[in-house]
Amino acid sequence: MDVVIPVDSAWAVGLVLAVTRVAAFAVASPVTGRALPAPARLSITFAVALAMAQPVSGVVEPGELFVAGAVNAAIGMAMGWVSGVLLHLFTSAGGIIDLVSGLSLATVFDPMQGDQGGVFARLFHLTGLALFIVGGGLALLIGGLVASTRILPLDAVLTPRPGLTGVVIELVSALLRSAVELALPVIGVLLMLELAMGLAARFAPQANVFMLGMPAKILAAITVVGSAWVLFPDAIALVESSVVRSLEAALRGLGGTGPVG
Predict the structure, then answer these.
(1) What count of other Cβ atoms lies within 10 Å of the Cβ of residue 152?
(2) Rounded alpha-carbon distances, angstroms, from residue 114 to 30, 70, 110, 125, 138
(3) Cα–Cα distance measured from residue 258 to residue 168, given in angstroms and rounded to the nearest whole number
(4) Cβ-Cβ contacts under 8 Å for 261 (sequence gap 6 or more)
(5) Kind and range of the H or E element at 110?
(6) How far apart are CA 220 and CA 56, in angstroms?
(7) In the 8-state DSSP scheme, what is residue 108?
(8) 8 phi, psi to nearest 5 deg
(9) Using CA atoms, how far apart are residues 143 and 145, in angstroms rounded to an integer?
(10) pLDDT given for residue 125 in this prediction
(11) CB 32 within 8 A of CB 87
(12) How far is Cα 49 from Cα 39, in angstroms, rounded to an integer?
């Protein structure tokens, strides 16, 4: 006796497209990238895809399914990139401190990002990512993924708008400005230290002050880096308030016209 399992083709196509969008987001976003093991990423991907899947009846041919999959992959990658830009605020702030303190010469391999990074860049990235997740950032990203199917349905066609470039420029400029503000206390202390060493070298050239410059700057950066951590809660609040707004702006720029809620 043959067992026949009825499968709704519209729901099956919708689930495949939802998995494609969520998987592309999981690959591009630093929150769910290398920071999570593969089984955890797969579990989150299928769980979120099941929640956001909807029947898609207009995609029946293999070519149409491939195009729809590519569109959803592009949407997921764009959303992951936006969330990554917001979280790279902390990495950029740490990188600035590494640069001005001289610790950028001692880079370490960061397995979470797959590249070389400075000590403070990695420390700030891990701290910001942990605070973002603890503060409910993962729930915000999942909510943004679910809401994306209302703005850009699973069978939508991408029609980029002229305002998309402005959204990207505004997002990157806000990132750089916030990163400098986060690292500003340490930069100010190191600047005063540089001025003090310059004056000491001017009035006592035989002391060879600059031989002590690098160790002094590293010690000063380690001593006052706590003043930058004090600003982390405000930075996390800024990132969390910007996540949903930036994701919606990116989806609108890609041609989304549907309501958010």
Answers:
(1) 25
(2) 11, 25, 6, 13, 21
(3) 21
(4) 147, 150
(5) strand 108-110
(6) 59
(7) E
(8) -75, 115
(9) 5
(10) 83
(11) no
(12) 15
Position 172: which residue type?
V
Q: Is the model more confident about 3 or about 137?
A: 137
Please, what is the average pLDDT of the chain? 77
Portion of the chain with pLDDT greater than 70, in percent: 84
pLDDT at position 260, please?
A: 55
Report the largest interatomic distance among the alpha carbons of the chain, rounded to a whole angstrom. Answer: 99
Q: What is the DSSP letter of 206?
A: G
Residue 2, Ramachandran bin (φ over 0: left; ψ between -120 and 50: alpha; else beta) = beta
Model pTM?
0.77
Joined together, the tokens standing for residue 11 give: 């729901």
- Among 57, 85, 59, which residue's Cα sits nearest to residue 70? 59
User: What are the backbone angles phi and psi of residue 102, rounded to the nearest 5°?
Assistant: 95, -5
Find the mean pLDDT for residues 178-182: 83
* Model confidence pLDDT, tens digit, residues 95-112: 888 888 777 666 655 555
Phi, psi of 227, rounded to the nearest 5 degrees:
-65, -30
Q: What is the pLDDT of residue 1?
A: 46
Q: Classify each residue of 84-110 as buried b or exposed e, where b means 16 or more C-beta atoms within 10 Å of its C-beta.
A: bbbbbbbbbbbbbbbbbbbbbeeeeeb
For residue 165, is it left (φ>0), alpha (ψ between -120 and 50) or beta?
alpha
